[in-house]
Structures are given as C-alpha cells and as structure tokens.
Amino acid sequence: MGFLGQLWTLVAAAALAVAAPARPMPRAVSSAVLGELTLFAEYAAASYCTNNINSTGNAVACSGDYCPLVQPDLFSSTDFGDVAGFFAVDPTNKLLVLSFRGSRTISTWIANLDFGATDASSLCDGCKAHSGFLKSWESVSDELTSQIASAKSTYPSYTLVLTGHSFGAAVAALGATALRNAGYDLDLYTYGQPRVGSTALAEYMTNQGVWRVTHTMDLVPRLPPASWGFSHASPEYWITSGNDVTVTTGDITEIVGVGSTAGNAGASGTSVEAHNWYIVHIDGCQ
C-alpha cells in the first residue's frame, strides 16, 4: 500500500467526521488536462521503482509498464535519501521533474503518524502544517534546492514540476510551497495526497496553484481528519471510475473550494484499494 493502509484505517475510524457537503463547482476536464494528469501520475509511479531511486544519470523506467510515457529520452535521475524519489531532466517534454515516493520505510511511517500541527510561518503567516510532513521536506530541502538551482541554470526554459503519491504527495505539496516562496515558478501535481495543514495553509497553496487528484473513496485524502483542524487546497480533480479502469475525461470532476466536503471527502464509504489506482497502478513497483 502506498501510504497508511490498514494502520491508518484504525487511526481514522473513530476520528473521521464528514460535514454537510458544500456545493461543488464542477468543471469539465479536457483531453489535454487528462494527458498532463496521466504523465505526472506516471512520474509519481516511477518513484516507487527502486531502479530509479538508486541510480544516477540513467533513464527512468518502471517494471510492469507503469510509466510508459516517461521512458523516452529521460536521464539524470538522482536519489535524495530516506525521503525518497528522483529529480529528472526530461528533454522530450522540456521538464525538470522532482518526484517523491510514498511510504516504504519505517522512517516515513513515523513521519506519517507525526500528525500534530506545527508552526509553519516559514511557509506563510499564521499557517500550521502536519509536523511529520514538514520535517520530511525540511530534511531534504537544502540538497534539493541546490540541485534545482543547478538544473535551472542549465535548462532555464524547462518547466519545473513537483509530483508524488500519498506521503510523497504531501512532501511535494509542502516543498512546492517553499520553493515558490523562494522565487521558483513551478507546477504541482499530487495524487492521493493527505491533508498537510491548516485552512490558512490550504488557502495559501490554493492561491499558488495546485493540481490535486483524488480517487473515488480513497481513505488517505481524508486524513488527518478535518475535525482536527486540517484542510485541503483547491481545486480537487476527483476520479470517479473504479480501480483498474481506464480513466477518461468524463471520469474526472473538478471541484472548487478550500476544504470542500464534496468529491472524495463527500463520497460514501472508504477504500484503501482506491489509493493504488491513480490513472495507472501508481504504487505498482512496490
């Protein structure tokens, strides 16, 4: 399981509280948007493949054909420690992609469960963030910022993109906020992202821009519970098709509203299995 699995199910069972659904503001998702969501879902999936984590200067590839779009002409992937993933240069699409892996080690599981809200004034005034996720970003921020600065110097016209699934999505979300504050122009794509902070932080991230993707009744985006003071940025791109089903433009609903209780948060029931399928089998390399 890419993130909290059955342990999170037990933690959440007594804590989840869903308010009356806010009115969703659905918007059409174009084929171009679906193409972008697919590409970066595959980049997120590639972070689970150990061959990409443990190599430098090699092509990014996935066993089991989990990321066919990202294999051609891709190079320069680097490992950045227990908060794992890779930083890749994609000359085909003119991208610099920083992809964070979901939970796989004891250290990242500990970070998942360190869900106290901590001061995040380093990101925005009056903001609080999930303590474990913020510590995880801070543990790699200096190294990654240095790599990004070097890559942008070499490829100034390339678009910087941060992505990740589950725990990786949370780290990507906070990292993108910090990097934007430092002056970097970037895009953020998250898949199955848990809530990462307070309403003030969610509003700040919304103003910066985010592509936040959820899937049916996936449990993880509902955690930590809103009743504990955590919120989500807007918009949400909610995939409504089932597991192992090819996603079409008609299967994705864009829902606008910080902390919305529509979409994934308003769906009846919960599912751990839905956390695995985000356009592709996103943690298939596990």
SSE topology:
Layout: H1 5-13, H2 31-46, H3 50-53, E1 85-90, E2 95-100, H4 106-113, E3 117-119, E4 128-130, H5 131-154, E5 159-165, H6 167-181, E6 186-191, H7 199-208, E7 211-215, E8 236-239, E9 252-255, E10 277-278, E11 280-281
Helix pairs in contact: 4-5, 5-6
Largest sheet: 7 strands, mixed
CATH architecture verdict:
3-Layer(aba) Sandwich
Classified by CATH, the class is Alpha Beta
* CATH topological fold name: Rossmann fold
Proportion in β-strands: 15-25%
Mean of pLDDT = 84
What radius of gyration results from the CA coordinates?
A: 17 Å
User: What series of H and E elements makes up the topology?
Assistant: HHHEEHEEHEHEHEEEEE
Task: Summarize the amount of helix as a percent range.
Answer: 25-40%
Number of strands: 11
Low-confidence stretches: 1-25, 72-77
Strand order of the largest sheet: 1-2-5-6-7-8-9
CATH homologous superfamily, by name? Alpha/Beta hydrolase fold, catalytic domain
